[in-house]
Amino acid sequence: MKSALLVVDVQNDFCPGGALAVPEGDAIIPGINALMDRFETVVLTQDWHPPGHCGFASSHAGRTPGDWVEMPYGPQILWPDHCVQETQGAGFHSGLRRDRVSLVQRKGWRLEIDSYSAFRENDRITPTGLEDWLREQGIGAITLVGLATDFCVADSAVDAAGLGFEVEVILDLCRGIDLDGSLAASLARMQAAGVRLSQAR
Predict the structure, then answer these.
(1) Confidence check: pLDDT of 1 > 90
(2) Of 13, 152, 155, 174, which is the active-site residue?
(3) Which residues are CB-contacts of 25 (< 8 A; sequence separation ≥ 6)?
(4) If we measure between CA atoms, which residue out of 92, 100, 94, 93 comes closest to residue 35?
(5) Which pLDDT tens digit goes with each residue over 56-107?
(6) At how many degrees (to 10) do helices 182-192 and 154-162 cross?
(7) What is the dotted CATH code of the domain comprising 2-50+88-198?
(8) 107, 114, 150, 174: which one is catalytic?
(9) C-alpha angle with apex 64: 59 to 69, nearest 5 degrees?
């Protein structure tokens, strides 16, 4: 079975000093770089939000980051403006290898819908196109690393498992936000979906 490495959102805004920094978000980069050599297919995901995106607190009058709003597709937590298209914050961290990358999968670029998963928008219906591309490459197994464990990594892993891929998440090459217990909840959700949780060392 062919396998792919899916590196989730290792972008400047999710690393220390960024607009939505994940604690120690840059600490995983050396391990991810080393892991790339074990895979023929490496995919990077990239949050790619337009200005005024619906997931930004600044797009909702009187709201602040951490608030919840009801969107047509369901509840949506609001975030600081981050990973805005063509900004430095949306760029990949300079320490992340790019020489082994087969595909960059952008997500969250639709103005009125957020996207945590690399496979489906937050309406849980609209595909990103990544599944079809992986099938075309003959990929049956996916290993995930990156940011953040409890949001984009977990949603991507659960979706991949639901689509029939064999899925592994290497936890020490991820970092989480842990918002109101979200990290523990995400680990339980991944395990329930059949995702294998492992350690690189």
Answers:
(1) no
(2) 152
(3) 10, 14, 15, 16, 18, 147, 148, 175
(4) 100
(5) 999 999 999 999 999 999 999 999 999 999 999 999 999 999 999 999 999 9
(6) 10
(7) 3.40.50.850
(8) 107
(9) 65
2 among known catalytic residues? no
Secondary structure of the chain as H, E, C letters: CEEEEEEECCEHHHCCCCCCCCCCCCCCHHHHHHHHHHCCEEEEEEECECCCCCCEHHHCCCCCCCCEEEECCEEEECECCCCECCCHHHCECCCCCCCCCCEEEEECCCCCCCCCCCCECCCCCCECCHHHHHHHCCEEEEEEEEECHHHHHHHHHHHHHHCCCEEEEEEEEEECCCCCCHHHHHHHHHHHCCCEEECCC
Query: Considering Cα of 35, then 194, then 77, then 55, what sign does the dihedral take?
Result: positive
Calpha distance 134→167 (Å, rounded): 13
Whole-structure pTM value: 0.96
Nearest to 84 by CA among 122, 58, 61: 58
Tokens 């639709």 sit on residue: 110
The mean pLDDT value for 25-36 works out to 98
Residue whose entry in the numeric block shows the structure tokens 């949050």: 47
Evaluate the omega torsion of the peptide bond into residue 148 and state whether it is cis, within 30 degrees of 0: yes
Nearest to 199 by CA among 25, 22, 1, 31: 31
